[in-house]
Design brief:
By secondary structure, the protein is α/β, with parallel strands linked by helices. Helix content is 35%, strand content 19%.
Length: 327
């Protein structure tokens, strides 16, 4: 028996300030649609869907500090209070995939099915975790939606870690991109942005250097100055040109701990929100982004909701820019 379940969206996660009833909606909690994806035709009229991955079993297996399973709930609570600056397009919360009995594999499989369903219905998934093991199930869902066309998928990962560790006994939050590349090598390319030497072994750097489908930028290349940004953009242009779709994944531990203390492995050497927002805007302009996720927020380790607020503002930023460039 597999242990993972689906829960539809909950109104209790979406509370916030009331605004004048005589004017249009002002906040996310007023605008968001709450749906049950298991109802027939429930997503036929939406453009973007938020889906939670309530699992940090991968973090536990990776000897990290657990608590990321609380991330989806808290991100929604922070997002609910933000003002909206998008109109005409529909954004929905479609609920959570929940890991039970430590069965991460079942959770990944169920999660991938819902991602496939969204993409096949021309809905942009924005997934919120959960550990970075979300990426394996997420990629499977993307691939199952487009595999009949034999497309090339480029993964752009904002992260301090490669997460390219070979699987030994069980997969975990440090193995997803090794799993993906091993299983889908002919159809995937991987670009990691923000890699920190102090957070990755020599073996991982060797794996990255010896695979022609892997590229990376170290954290010192991720400054907000025009020089560093232009250099990285040139590399990304070539990467994006050679793929049909882009899967964006953001590990919150890639940010400096000044901005994101609420993660299992915080570091002061990470990038800034301004850098990531500029890069996201640039990547979204390609119109190749097919799906996105945010991983590794651990609310139990957060301070003043700094990390949760940042994750929520990333989603808000992506929604605004995706709508601006895509529609």
């Amino acid at each position: 028996m597999q242990y993972a379940i689906y829960h539809p969206a909950k109104k209790t996660f979406w509370q916030g300030r009331k605004s004048n009833p005589n004017i249009e909606n002002q906040y996310w909690h007023q605008e968001i649609e709450l749906l049950n994806i298991e109802n027939v035709n429930t997503i036929s009229n939406i453009d973007i869907a938020i889906l939670g991955y309530v699992c940090d079993e991968g973090v536990r297996r990776n000897s990290g500090r657990i608590g990321a399973q609380k991330g989806p709930k808290v991100i929604r609570e922070r997002l609910a209070k933000l003002p909206i600056h998008f109109t005409q397009k529909k954004v929905a919360d479609i609920g959570d995939i929940i890991c039970l009995e430590d069965d991460m594999e079942a959770c990944q499989n169920l999660f991938s099915k819902h991602i496939t369903h969204l993409i096949q219905n021309k809905v942009l998934p924005i997934a919120i975790g959960g550990g970075h093991d979300i990426a394996y199930g997420h990629f499977k869902g993307i691939w199952n939606a487009v595999k009949t066309d034999n497309k090339q998928i480029g993964i752009i990962n904002f992260d301090a870690h490669f997460d390219l560790r070979p699987v030994e006994k069980k997969s975990n939050s440090g193995t997803p991109f090794h799993q993906i590349i091993a299983e889908y090598s002919e159809n995937v390319s991987y670009f990691a942005i923000g890699i920190q030497q102090q957070s990755n072994t020599k073996e991982l750097f060797e794996i990255a250097k010896n695979n022609s489908r892997i590229d990376y930028a170290i954290n010192y290349d991720c400054e907000s100055s025009n020089k560093e940004l232009d250099a990285l953009k040139k590399r990304l242009i070539l990467f994006i040109e050679n793929v049909d779709y882009v899967y964006l994944t953001i590990d919150m531990d890639g940010f400096s701990s000044a901005y994101a203390p609420g993660v299992s492995a915080p570091s002061p050497l990470g990038f800034t929100p301004y850098f990531v927002f500029k890069m996201l805007s640039f990547i979204l302009k390609s119109n190749k982004v097919i799906s996105l996720d945010i991983a590794e927020l651990n609310p139990s380790l957060d301070r003043d909701n700094l990390t949760a607020n940042l994750a929520a503002k990333i989603i808000d930023f992506v929604v605004m820019n995706y709508i601006r460039h895509r529609f």
